[in-house]
C-alpha cells in the first residue's frame, strides 16, 4: 500500500483554523460526556477489527514489518488499550474521595478529573500505528479534542490514518494532519492544552521550546541506550531467546525499549556469544538478509547512520557475528560486537537498529557505574539473574524509566504499569489509567456547609484565638471541640 501526503498546503492559517474549530467543539461540552468518550473508543476498536489487513499492509510498506510483529506489537496492543479503557472508563471518570483535614471540619473533599482541552499528538515512525493511536485513545478517554500528526517517515500508515480515522470517530473533535517539518512547525506555533510527542531528544527539545511560549505542558516519550545485564547463573538458552526477540524481534532493533547494549562478565562472555549465534541462526537462518521475519531499516539516512557505527575503526574488528548489509533493500543483519570501547560511536548514541555491542566487566557489580556513565536514565533496563541480591541492587542503582527482570520489553504490555521515561528518556507516562491521568487536570474540590463556624478563625487575632488555631493546625481534638462550641468568647 502506498501512502500519499495531502496535496493541500497546511500552513499557519490552516493550523490556527484547525485548533480554533477543535476548541469550539471542546467548549460545546460533548467530549466531557461518558457517552461521547465510549462511542469514540468503540469506533477505534471497530477500525482496528475491520482494517487489520490495511494496517498490516501499510506497516509492510513502511518498514517491511513482519505480519506477526504487526499483530503482536501494534494491532493487539492498540485493541487491548481500547478495551481496557472502555472497561474502566466510568470508574476513572468518577470523582475520587479523599480525607478532609481537621482544620476544615466538617467538610468533604474530592478530586475531580477534567479534560485539559485541545491536544496535539506527534507520533513516531517505528511503531507508526500503535504510537499514534494509543495517545489518541488516552486523549479521548480523558474527554479532550485532539490532532494526530503521524510521522512523515511512515507515509503509508500516515495516509491510512488520514483516510480511515474520520470514518470511525467524530471528525469535529479528532483530526489527522499529515506532513513533515513545515506542517509540524505550523502546528507547534499554536496554543495547545497539552503536547504529546514520541521520538528523539533533538526534536523533543524543539517541541518543548515551542510549548514553553504558551506554558503548554508536555509529555515526551523518548528513548536512550537501554542496557541488558546478564549474570552467569541464568538459564542461558531461555535468556538469549528473550534477549534476541526483544532486540531483533522488535522492528529489527528500531524500538525505543529494544536492548541497546549488553554487559556481562569477561569469563561468561564466550558462552553468551556462542548461544546468541546459535539462537539467531535458528530465528533468521544462515542468510538473515533474506529473512521475512526481519524489518528493514526505515530509510537510507538511518541505514547510513548504522553503517557508520559499523565502519568506525574502533569497532570494525570487534564484530563477532553478522555485519552483512544490503543498501538496496535497506537491510542490515543481526550483528554482535564484543568488547567495544566506551569512546566508540556505537556507545555514544542510541543505536536504534540491529547492532548489539557487548561490554565485559570483571564482576557484575562494576556494571552499575558503567551504565550511568554511558547514558544515565535509559527508558528501559534489563537484568537476567537468579541472584535476588543482584536483582535488588540493579533496581536500586539503575535510574531507568522501567525495569524488567529476566525478560525484555514485556513490561509495556501491562496496563497497570506506567510507561514513560525519566531525565533524557522522557517526561511523563501513559498506558491504562496513566493515559487518562496524562490528559486530565486533577481539580481539588472541598465542600463545606454553614455549620462548624469557628470564631478563632477571624480577626482580631487575640491570644486565646491563636492558641485555638495552633491547636487545630496541630490536630488537637480539644482545640476542635473548643472552636466548635464558640471558644474563645472574645
Question: Can you give me a brief rundown of this structure?
Answer:
The protein is an alpha/beta fold and 490 residues long. Helices cover 42% and strands 17% of the residues.
Number of distinct helices: 17
Helix content: 40-55%
Low-confidence stretches: 1-6
Question: What amount of the residues lies in strands?
Answer: 15-25%
| First-last Cα distance | 83 Å
Briefly note the structural class of the backbone. alpha/beta
- The strand count comes to 20
Radius of gyration from the CA trace? Answer: 27 Å
Spatial order of the strands in the main sheet? 10-13-14-9-8-15-16
Biggest sheet architecture: 7 strands, mixed
Inertia-based shape: globular
- Round the mean pLDDT to the nearest integer and report it: 94
Give a topology summary.
Layout: H1 12-27, H2 34-50, H3 52-63, H4 67-93, E1 96-98, E2 107-115, E3 118-122, H5 130-141, E4 145-149, H6 155-168, E5 174-176, H7 181-188, E6 194-198, H8 201-212, E7 218-221, E8 227-230, H9 236-247, E9 261-265, H10 269-284, H11 300-311, E10 319-321, E11 325-326, E12 331-332, E13 335-338, H12 345-348, E14 355-361, H13 367-375, E15 380-384, H14 388-397, E16 402-405, E17 419-420, E18 426-427, E19 429-430, H15 433-438, E20 440-448, H16 463-473, H17 477-484
Keywords:
disordered N terminus, 490 residues, 17 helices, six-stranded mixed sheet, seven-stranded mixed sheet, alpha/beta
Amino acid at each position: 500500500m502506498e501512502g500519499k501526503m495531502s496535496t493541500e498546503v497546511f500552513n499557519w492559517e490552516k493550523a490556527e483554523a484547525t485548533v480554533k474549530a477543535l476548541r469550539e467543539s471542546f467548549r460545546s461540552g460533548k467530549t466531557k460526556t461518558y457517552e461521547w468518550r465510549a462511542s469514540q473508543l468503540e469506533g477505534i476498536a471497530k477500525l482496528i477489527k475491520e482494517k487489520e489487513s490495511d494496517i498490516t499492509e501499510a506497516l509492510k510498506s513502511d518498514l517491511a514489518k513482519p505480519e506477526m510483529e504487526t499483530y503482536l506489537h501494534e494491532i493487539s496492543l492498540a485493541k487491548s488499550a481500547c478495551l481496557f479503557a472502555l472497561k474502566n472508563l466510568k470508574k476513572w471518570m468518577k470523582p475520587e474521595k479523599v480525607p478532609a483535614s481537621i482544620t476544615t471540619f466538617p467538610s468533604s473533599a474530592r478530586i475531580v478529573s477534567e479534560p485539559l482541552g485541545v491536544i496535539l499528538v506527534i507520533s513516531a515512525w517505528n511503531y507508526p500505528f500503535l504510537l499514534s493511536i494509543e495517545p489518541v485513545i488516552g486523549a479521548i478517554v480523558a474527554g479532550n479534542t485532539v490532532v494526530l500528526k503521524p510521522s512523515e517517515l511512515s507515509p503509508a500508515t500516515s495516509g491510512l490514518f488520514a483516510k480511515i480515522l474520520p470514518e470511525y470517530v467524530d471528525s469535529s473533535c479528532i483530526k489527522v494532519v499529515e506532513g513533515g517539518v513545515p506542517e509540524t512547525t505550523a502546528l507547534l506555533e499554536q496554543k495547545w492544552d497539552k503536547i504529546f510527542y514520541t521520538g528523539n531528544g533533538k526534536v523533543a527539545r524543539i517541541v518543548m521550546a515551542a510549548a514553553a511560549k504558551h506554558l503548554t505542558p508536555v509529555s515526551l516519550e523518548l528513548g536512550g541506550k537501554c542496557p541488558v545485564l546478564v549474570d552467569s547463573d541464568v538459564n542461558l538458552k531461555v535468556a538469549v531467546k528473550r534477549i534476541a526477540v526483544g532486540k531483533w524481534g522488535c522492528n529489527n532493533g528500531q524500538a525505543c525499549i529494544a536492548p541497546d547494549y549488553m554487559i556481562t562478565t569477561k569469563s561468561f562472555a564466550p558462552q553468551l556469544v556462542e548461544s546468541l549465534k546459535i539462537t539467531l541462526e535458528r530465528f533468521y537462518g544462515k542468510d538473515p538478509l533474506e529473512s521475512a521475519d526481519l524489518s528493514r531499516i526505515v530509510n537510507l539516512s538511518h541505514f547510513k547512520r548504522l553503517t557508520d557505527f559499523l565502519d568506525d575503526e574502533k569497532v570494525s574488528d570487534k564484530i563477532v557475528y553478522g555485519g552483512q548489509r544490503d543498501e538496496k533493500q535497506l537491510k542490515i543483519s543481526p550483528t554482535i560486537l564484543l568488547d567495544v570501547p566506551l569512546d566508540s560511536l556505537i556507545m555514544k548514541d542510541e543505536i536504534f537498529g540491529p547492532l548489539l555491542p557487548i561490554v565485559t566487566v570483571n564482576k557484575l557489580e562494576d556494571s552499575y557505574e558503567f551504565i550511568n556513565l554511558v547514558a544515565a536514565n535509559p527508558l528501559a533496563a534489563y537484568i537476567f539473574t537468579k541472584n535476588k541480591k543482584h536483582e535488588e541492587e540493579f533496581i536500586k542503582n539503575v535510574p531507568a524509566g522501567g525495569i524488567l527482570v529476566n525478560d525484555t520489553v514485556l513490561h509495556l504490555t501491562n496496563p497497570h504499569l506506567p510507561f514513560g521515561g525519566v531525565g533524557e528518556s522522557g517526561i511523563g507516562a501513559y498506558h491504562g489509567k496513566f493515559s487518562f491521568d496524562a490528559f486530565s487536570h486533577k481539580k481539588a474540590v472541598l465542600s463545606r456547609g454553614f455549620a462548624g463556624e469557628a470564631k478563632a478563625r477571624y480577626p482580631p487575632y487575640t491570644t486565646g484565638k491563636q492558641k485555638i488555631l495552633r491547636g487545630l493546625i496541630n490536630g488537637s481534638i480539644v482545640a476542635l471541640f473548643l472552636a466548635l462550641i464558640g471558644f474563645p468568647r472574645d
